[in-house]
Amino acid sequence: MFDIKEIRSQFPILNQQVNGKPLIYLDNAASSQKPISVLETWQKYYEEINANVHRGIHTLSQLATEEMENSRKKVQHFINAKHDYEVIFTRGTTEGINLIAYSLGNSNFIKKDDEIIISYLEHHSNIVPWQMLCERTGAKLKVIPIDENGILQLDFLDQNLSEKTKIVSVNQVSNALGIINPIEEIIAKVRTQSSALMVIDGAQSVPHFEIDVQKIDCDFFVFSGHKMYAPMGVGILYGKEEILEKMQPFHGGGEMIATCSFEKTTYAGLPFKLEAGTPNVGGNIALGAAVDFMKKVGIQNIRNHENALLEYAQKKLLEIDGLKIYGEKAKRAGVVSFNLEGVGIASDVGMILDKLGIAVRTGHHCTQPIMDFFNVAGTVRASFAVFNTLEEIDALAEGVKKAQRMLM
Ligand code: PMP
Predict the structure, then answer these.
(1) Which residue puts its alpha carbon closest to atom 12 of ligand 1?
(2) What are phi and psi of 221, to 5 degrees?
(3) Closest ligand 1 atom to Cα of 122
(4) pTM for the full model?
(5) In Å, what is the CA distance from 335 to each residue of 144, 328, 379?
(6) What are phi and psi of 222, to 5 degrees?
(7) SS (HEC) of 219-259
(8) Tens-digit pLDDT profile for residues 106-148
(9) If you take atom 6 of ligand 1, which residue's CA is the nearest one?
(10) Which 3-state string (H, E, C) describes 31-98?
């Protein structure tokens, strides 16, 4: 049974007032709140274990290693990776994509005049690392266009995929608009029309969807812990074994070597080759607790609840005269992104909502090309998690109406 009251009771941060009003947290696409089980796991690590991993013979170090490797296995099963060593701990999605871009660059995988394809709907962290790789190598960046609903125009792939295409990197869900991209169709096209590697940015899909990387058949899948109820500063890069094996390390340092001398260093096997330095052990262990939390609630339950919130939010907000939702006609998950006609600055709306205790994100959401496409400086974005309620959506709609009255 899905019991929203019981779920909310697991999020202590929700029991507070902001600006004299009960907190309504609708900024989950930026970072979700954390349940007690995650907070306690993290605290317990520091109170009872706190030791470095993979290095010590002493009991605490072994315990830390065991717990962290156990968490890696939880993530492996959560995304259905074939092997636990295909699951690399990172700082988040941004680091995951940079790791791939640098490592493939260092492995001579990309050469002058090769092509990398991304989409118009990408977060800056799935744009800039590829631009930097293109600058280093002379490769070209191509961009799948969108239509007025924000829907990707996939015939672009038919016209542009070729043996020159080395990487295609798209998100599964857009953070700015919440649009669900047809990654299965994209991957099918990429597989039949090129031999490019397929990277999926799952930062906004993992918190809402069941993920099966083997079924999707992507080469890489990256995401952040902090958007899926885990602490900040942890994330995952999944990669297929045969590809990770061929990749050069991203960072050099401790943990990632097999042998090291001044003359020559040889590298450790997976996953350690790609995990130089001391990891965020407590955070990585707490990521496992976040996986447990999501599984316990049930990913389909989370999805159904958030879909109901989204549908209701869309209905309530569209009752407001002059409110435009971007990507309204597209299939979406967890996000409504909107502006009020005649109110030029989204942050003005955000500030009024904040005074009412309602936390939303305003601005370009690290997706300036999308904002340019719609010819706006930014939008107001409300984004949902499992603990949000229909009553909170009512409060959002009332708050937006109030903002409209005050700003027009
Ligand atoms: N990609 C998408 C789709 C995102 O939503 C985000 C975070 N807003 C990122 C990448 C970057 O994630 P992080 O800042 O956790 O590295």
Answers:
(1) 93
(2) -145, 125
(3) 3
(4) 0.98
(5) 22, 10, 12
(6) -120, 145
(7) CEEEEECCCCCCCCCCEEEEECHHHHHHCCCCCCCCCCEEE
(8) 888 999 999 999 999 999 999 999 999 999 999 999 999 999 9
(9) 203
(10) CCCCCHHHHHHHHHHHHHHCCCCCCCCCHHHHHHHHHHHHHHHHHHHHHCCCCHHHEEEECCHHHHHH
Query: Do residues 264 and 211 touch, judged by C-beta distance below 8 A?
Result: no
Q: Which amino acid does the sequence have at 56?
A: G
CB atoms within 10 A of CB 257: 17
- What are 190's two structure tokens? 């990429």
Ligand 1 probe mutation, 175, 280, 383, most atoms within 8 A of CB = 175
Q: For residues 278-313, b (16+ Cβ closer than 10 Å) or e, as one string?
A: ebbbbbbbbbbbbbbbbeebebeebbebbeebbebb
- The letter for the amino acid at 142 is K
Sole residue written with tokens 């096997």: 269
Angle 304-81-74 (CA atoms, 0-180°, nearest 5)? Answer: 70
pLDDT tens track for 262-288: 999 999 999 999 999 999 999 999 999
Catalytic residues: 366
Closest CA to 152 of 120, 174, 187: 120
Ligand 1 centre and the CA of 104: distance in Å? 21
